[in-house]
Amino acid sequence: MNLRVLFVGEIVGRAGVYCIKSVLSEVKKRHAIDFVVANGDGTTGGFGIGKNHSIYLRKLGVDAITGGDQVYYKKDMVEHIENAYYILRPANFPPGNPGRGWRYFTVRERKIGVISMLGQSGFDRVHLSNPFTFLPEIVERLKRETQTVIVDFHAVTTAEKYSMFHLADGMVSALIGTGQRVMTSDARISVHGTATICDAGRTGSIDSVAGLDPAVEIRQFVTQMPERSQDSWASPALQGVVIEIDAEGRAQSIETVNQPCTVPANETQRNGDPS
């Protein structure tokens, strides 16, 4: 029995949430999706994810939400994550931190292991344990109950991501890169049956700077003065990948998804979601 998994690229801002609201069900139906994983590290204002947004995404059909370096940016998430089994913070945070970094989910009487993992290069505020030593240990535990394991590797350098791809080759069903918020064109299946892509892209404004208003981001580079980033609504789309995994946990196919989202003129003038 093969499973079809949709991995949604990082959801960014209100435009990203609106895309989930408006096109996720259509994408799931078209691709016969059994299970949805989405990176939510930029959901609330482009930085982190709040409690209300996490609940809303769950109601809209996202089965598992993975995090990144900004997973604790919203204060209400620190308490909420303990009781929200569907939210995963990076597993290589200190073990006493709120939440969990991996979990089993059951789909059509079949268990799927999902792991959230953070890279080490390029992050200014967090410096976590080595993901290259953590991942094999976690996978070994998960494989006691399932051969189907999906990893979100949230990192910002291609060198670190490709090093992880080679380490995990044949170890997991899929290792999907996030963190750069730009979809790459390197989706592939290894000879050992692991699906990889350097970055699954972003869900939100595509004609923007990482889902945010370009004018504000440009001013910050020009003036070197911090300024509050703003949502962008230009050319919104749901991006990600669809992975088919067989009963032995080997990936059979991976294809990219880039589904444009039409936004009514009045939507940008109101929240349109629980933010």
How would you summarize this macromolecular structure in one to three sentences?
By secondary structure, the protein is of the alpha/beta class.
Per-chain topology:
Blueprint: E1 3-8, E2 10-11, H1 13-30, E3 35-39, H2 51-59, E4 64-66, H3 75-80, E5 87-88, E6 102-107, E7 110-118, H4 131-142, E8 149-154, H5 158-168, E9 174-178, E10 188-189, E11 195-197, E12 202-205, H6 214-223, E13 236-245, E14 251-260
Structural features:
single chain, 275 residues, alpha/beta, Purple Acid Phosphatase, chain A, domain 2, six-stranded mixed beta sheet, 6 helices, globular
Task: Characterise the protein shown here.
The longest helix has 18 residues, at 13-30. The protein has 6 helices and 14 strands. The chain has one domain (3-265): 4-Layer Sandwich (Purple Acid Phosphatase, chain A, domain 2), CATH 3.60.21.10. The strands form 2 sheets. Strands 1, 2, 3, 4, 5, 12, 13 and 14 form an 8-stranded mixed β-sheet that branches. The protein has a 6-stranded mixed β-sheet with strand order 6-7-8-9-11-10, covered by helices on one side. The model has no long low-confidence stretch (mean pLDDT 95). The protein is 24% helix and 27% strand. The protein is an alpha/beta fold and 275 residues long.
Q: Could you tell me the number of beta strands?
A: 14
Q: Helicity level, as a percent range? A: 10-25%
Task: Assign the CATH topology.
Answer: Purple Acid Phosphatase, chain A, domain 2
Structural class computed from helices and strand pairing: alpha/beta
CATH architecture field: 4-Layer Sandwich
Strand composition percent: 25-35%
Cα separation of the termini: 39 Å
**Inertia-based shape:** globular
Number of helices: 6
Pattern of helices and strands: EEHEHEHEEEHEHEEEEHEE
CATH class: Alpha Beta
Number of domains in the coordinates? 1
Query: Quick one: biggest sheet?
Result: 8 strands, mixed
**What is the H level of CATH, i.e. the homologous superfamily?**
Metallo-dependent phosphatases
**Mean pLDDT across every amino acid position:** 95
Low-confidence stretches: none
Could you tell me the radius of gyration in angstroms?
A: 17 Å
